[in-house]
Automatic annotation (TrEMBL):
It comes from the Bacteria. The lineage of its organism: Bacteria, Bacillati, Actinomycetota, Actinomycetes, Pseudonocardiales. GO terms for cellular component: cytosol. Pfam families: Aminotran_4. Its EC number is 4.1.3.38. Gene3D superfamilies: 3.30.470.10, D-amino Acid Aminotransferase, subunit A, domain 2 (3.20.10.10). One of its GO terms (molecular function) is 4-amino-4-deoxychorismate lyase activity. Keywords: Lyase. This is Aminodeoxychorismate lyase. Belongs to the class-IV pyridoxal-phosphate-dependent aminotransferase family. It comes from Prauserella cavernicola. One of its GO terms (biological process) is carboxylic acid biosynthetic process.
Length: 282
């Protein structure tokens, strides 16, 4: 089951071709996107996702997204969905057609079923590897043209890292900076647990501000946990009580093995935190 709607409110057949071959998203990965989890007809963290879409668009000098139109198209996809109780809803906003001085962004929302692999990872946890990202933690401020912290469509490096993880017998990645600090996953934020405190690195070191991580932290604080947003070295991962990867579609996923070494058994912590997170949406 898939539902495709363009930002102007037109529904379209997702099995047909709609993009021009000279769309700059195709030619250069030039655009931004969001992926939102919809459960039982309710989009999770729609506001923060649309905020981040606007921020990413601004970083790429794209026209400001029409927020009300995006809210309408999200609802249109939801209203036309007849699949399972969860939707992975992708919003795509590209620079449009190459060489056209009057180019307007190409903009659409695509609702998809959740991948079986993702569902398995949510339940069973995953093995991850640490991989170098080659950036310093001060680079974002010095070099805004690198678009660190923008959710751009240029994910080839992120996907290559996941393939490297597969070559090393794992299914996901935790990127590290040149000073050994933990950054993020290719499609997730990193959360480390020590006692009753959750830690995540700050967006200022060149990573995406995670909407799920933010949501988990707020829910956890209400449930009595402490939360800390600060940098930490990758060496902290192996001694933590738990390491989680958080993203909209995977929710909070437990890392059980890192670089081939088993981590502390965090099954119970995971169940507790996943419940705290999910119970807001019951
Ligand atoms: N970091 C990166 C690089 C991502 O691609 C994602 C999501 O795809 C995240 C973090 C987590 O963001 P969110 O929780 O908003 O899905």
């Amino acid at each position: 089951m898939r539902v495709l709607a363009f930002l102007d409110g037109t529904l379209a057949d997702p099995d047909q071709a709609h993009l021009r071959v000279d769309d700059l998203s195709v030619l250069r990965g030039d655009g931004v996107f969001e992926t939102i989890l919809v459960t039982d007809g309710r989009p999770r963290e729609l506001g923060p996702h649309l905020d981040r879409l606007a921020r990413s668009a601004a970083m790429l000098d794209l026209p400001e997204p029409d927020r009300a139109a995006w809210e309408r198209v999200v609802q249109l996809v939801i209203d036309n969905w007849s699949g399972g109780s969860e939707i992975a809803l992708k919003l795509v906003y590209t620079r449009g057609v190459e060489g056209d001085p009057n180019a307007t962004p190409t903009a659409f929302a695509l609702g998809m079923e959740i991948d079986e692999k993702v569902k398995r990872a949510r339940a069973e946890g995953i093995a991850a590897v640490t991989l170098e990202r080659g950036i310093g933690t001060d680079l974002m401020e010095r070099a805004p043209w690198l678009l660190l912290g923008a959710k751009s469509l240029s994910y080839a490096v992120n996907m290559a890292a996941v393939r490297e993880a597969a070559r090393r017998g794992a299914s996901d990645v935790i990127f590290t900076a040149t000073d050994g600090s933990v950054l993020e996953g290719p499609t997730s934020a990193v959360i480390l647990v020590r006692g009753r405190t959750l830690y995540t690195p700050p967006p200022t070191i060149g990573i995406l501000p995670g909407t799920t991580q933010g949501d988990v932290f707020r829910a956890a604080e209400r449930a009595g946990w402490q939360t800390v947003v600060e940098s930490f070295p990758a060496s902290e991962l192996t001694s933590a009580d738990a390491v989680f990867l958080a993203s909209s579609v995977r929710k909070v996923t437990r890392v059980h093995t890192l670089d081939g070494q088993p981590l502390a058994d965090s099954t119970e912590l995971h169940a507790e935190l996943a419940k705290v997170y999910d119970s807001q949406y019951d």
